[in-house]
Design brief:
The structure holds 2 protein chains of 2 kinds.
Chain A lengths: L22 E9 L5 H8 L5 E8 L8 H4 L4 E14 L2 E7 L7 H8 L4 E6 L8 H9 L4 E6 L9 H7 L8 E4 L4 H27 L7
Parallel strand pairs in A: 1-4, 1-5, 5-6, 6-7
Antiparallel strand pairs in A: 2-3, 3-4
Chain B lengths: L37 E4 L14 H12 L2 E2 H8 L3 H13 L3 E3 L11 H13 L1
Helix pairs in contact in B: 1-3, 2-3
Protein name (chain A): ATP-binding protein
InterPro entries (chain A): Gliding_Motility_GTPase (IPR052705), Gpn (IPR004130), P-loop_NTPase (IPR027417)
Keywords (chain A): ATP-binding, GTP-binding, Hydrolase, Nucleotide-binding
Chain lengths: 214, 126
């Protein structure tokens, strides 16, 4: 009875997807420092890239127990993000991942439930994107490598980059200009297409006659 | 360092977790809201009078949700509060029946292909 008596099982707890029909999908943009992550997010986002901050202890851990808060020095790590509304009730959020390695644990949270990732690469310092490639390969998160073609960098073909990064077969490599909206859109389209293929393949694997039990 | 801190160096005037009464985790629900969990005002939420129980930061978040459904990340950015603080405050609002929070798609059940197709077409049309 009373104000909250508006349906079975719904007493202010988390609503089901049906209750709040809006759906949000998450795409991560990773890569080395200064490779153009925020530029890419800004180029395709319909909003000016926003910035969220997480508080961290000096040890680089999320502050999540009251015990140490008053004693530990805290620092903040910023994440830039943007949004693309596909239609009312369906939007895409793009998160630029923090560049520094000591914030890996934030990636774990960010990649939870992510549709996929874009690993931005600069051919002048390809090694900067190795950690991101490793990270997503190990966690089986679908990703594409987008080579941000800086004007003064030598041009390499997608195949060359793919070989240099020793990518798993099928991982798309796209040449792009992170400043350009259409180019950024193309990168995202390739990613979503690829994520769809990966998910379908896994689904078929899991129902296949030879599928081992998990 | 000469031991004197001014302006931004001195940190916020109110320590962030003071707004949550020192709590760093949301209440009994114990749910860690995802950055893209969507927050909407609960139309069946309590009367305006109930809001008196909430702090100014709670009310600021509620105001932001009122204009449109927002993600946790957007709320944090617009309220200029750390995400961790926003999570605790949202937990309070959820318990008070003031907001509804969507679960993001669970990782094991990524969106249907129909949705992915819609996203691709939507991106092409941008």
């Amino acid at each position: 009875m009373g104000l909250h008596d508006d349906g079975p099982g719904e007493t202010g707890a988390l609503s089901s997807d049906g209750d709040l029909a809006a759906l949000a999908l998450k795409i991560l943009v990773a890569g080395g420092f200064g490779v153009g992550k925020t530029t890419l997010v800004g180029a395709v986002s319909e909003i000016r890239p926003l910035r969220t901050e997480e508080l961290l202890s000096e040890a680089g851990e999320l502050v999540d127990d009251t015990g140490g808060v008053e004693r530990k020095t805290t620092t903040t790590v910023a994440m830039d993000f943007g949004r693309i509304t596909i239609r009312s009730g369906l939007s895409l959020y793009l998160f630029g991942t923090p560049g520094q390695d000591r914030f890996w644990f934030l990636w774990d949270e960010l990649s939870q439930g992510a549709l996929g990732a874009v690993v931005l690469a600069d051919t002048r310092r390809l090694e900067d994107c190795f950690p991101a490639v490793d990270y997503f390969e190990h966690r089986r998160i679908p990703f594409v490598v987008a080579v941000n073609c800086f004007a003064d960098a030598r041009r390499y073909g997608a195949n060359e980059v793919s070989r240099a990064l020793d990518l798993e077969q099928g991982t798309p490599v796209v040449l792009c200009d992170a400043r350009d909206r259409d180019s950024g859109k193309e990168v995202l389209i390739r990613l979503v297409e690829y994520a769809g293929r990966v998910h379908t393949a896994r689904l078929l694997d899991s129902v296949g006659p030879q599928a081992g039990s998990v | 360092m000469d031991g004197r801190w001014y302006d931004a160096d001195a940190g916020p005037l109110v320590r962030p977790y003071a707004m949550t009464g020192g709590r760093t985790k949301p209440g009994p629900h114990g749910v860690r809201f995802d950055l893209i969990a969507l927050v909407a005002v609960d139309p069946g939420g309590g009367a305006v009078g109930d809001e008196g129980l909430l702090g100014p930061e709670h009310r600021a978040l509620l105001g932001l949700c009122r204009s449109e459904t927002q993600s946790v990340a957007e709320l944090a950015a617009e309220a200029d509060l750390p995400v961790g603080v926003v999570r605790v405050l949202l937990g309070d609002l959820l318990e008070a029946g003031q907001v509804k929070v969507s679960r993001p798609v669970p990782p094991a059940r990524l969106p249907e292909l129909r949705i992915l197709r819609e996203v691709i077409e939507g991106l092409r049309a941008l």
